[in-house]
Amino acid sequence: MKQIGFFDEANALKRLSALGDKLEWLNAAIDWSMFLPLLNRAKPDRTQTPKGGRPPLHPLLMFKVVILQELHNISDEEAEYQINDRLSWKRFLGLSLSDKAPDRTSIWLFRETLKNSGVYEDLFDLFNAKMEALGVITHKGTIVDASFVDVPRQRNTREENQTIKEGGVPEEWQVGGQAHMLSQKDFNARWAMKGNELHYGYKDHILCDSESKMILDYRVSAANLHDSQMLLSLLSFHGEKVNSLWADSAYLGEDIMSWVKDFFPNIAFQICEKGSRGKPLTDAQKLSNREKSKTRARVEHVFGYITCSMGGMYIRSIGIKRACCKIALRNLVYNLTRYATLRRLERVPSMV
User: Fold this and answer.
1) What distances in angstroms separate CA 183 from CA 161, 186, 287, 324, one per listed residue?
2) Of 250, 244, 255, 260, whose CA–CA distance to 208 is shortest?
């Protein structure tokens, strides 16, 4: 095998840049230093741990590792391998060929720290505040929608599922040598059917800025919760900025609209209508739906990008706390890549 020369790494990186390294574009577009104060808050308390061992890795490095994970929807083990294998990933992280990559345990511990501290919510809000300050998020129109986020399916009996739904724990999971099963069972995920597709897991409910297609806010629920049930919660911090709300027919209903109007009387609803048995849509309603869909459909681009370009609406975690952290980080990474795309097209101002 030919020995690696002194300039070989630089020459290889130059060729990657010429081919269009998307990670290089993302790295150049984002002011990563803005996240550092929050990441420093999430550091574990090392005064309570024994001295010695490997020094902690820089939090910004670990944050960018998590970003790579969410960009490609890969496990901790796969992330460790790919960082060691791919030169573009090393450059994104600021590592040279000779630098040791974070191992799978370090990656897992860092994400657990984000989850336990709740900093992932602040990271999402911080970036959105920056987007508002730059004028990327305009609030000229707001779209609401939800999508399933599947998790590994649980092979429970009907009796066990019924016990879980009632808030209990099956007795056979708590006795003898079965107690370890509790750590592998998800007590928050639920089954749901849409069309002919069966889903198990959670839902990502989002508000989307209609002009920039940035995710304004999100809520996480079990998969069986109806889309409209998170609407008021989503609007609670944004209602004053929402002038027009675009949605599909899942949010249609006098009780839902009157409920929202009580809290946010100035919102103009742009909700697609649906027909029913014996009462089909009129031509005027169909035309109105087509006009509304020109704006409402932009939220589908968000979920479409996450599905097709970020590895899909699927997470490998157990429990709603980890699901909230993973979904929040994925929504944040979508916003980061969306801004990088808009910046590359020179449609928005620079933040660096």
Assistant:
1) 16, 8, 52, 18
2) 244
Listed as ranges, residues in the chain with pLDDT below 70 are 1-7, 44-54, 176-179
Q: Look at residue 215 and give its three-state secondary structure.
A: strand
CA atoms of 326 and 13, how far apart (whole Å): 31
197-209 and 215-222: which strand pairing?
A: antiparallel
The closest alpha carbon to 262, from 287, 286, 284, 231, belongs to 231
> pLDDT at position 310, please?
96
Q: Which residues contact 287 (CB under 8 A, 6 or more apart)?
A: none
DSSP string, 109-161: HHHHHHHHHTHHHHHHHHHHHHHHHHTS---S-EEEEEEEEE-PPP---HHHH
Alpha helices in the chain (DSSP H): 8-19, 22-29, 36-41, 59-72, 76-85, 87-93, 104-117, 119-134, 158-165, 231-235, 254-263, 283-296, 298-309, 320-344
Which residues contact residue 105 at a Cβ distance below 8 angstroms, ignoring those fewer than 6 apart? Answer: 76
Read off the pLDDT of residues 29-42 as tens digits, 9 standing for 90 and up.
999 999 999 999 88
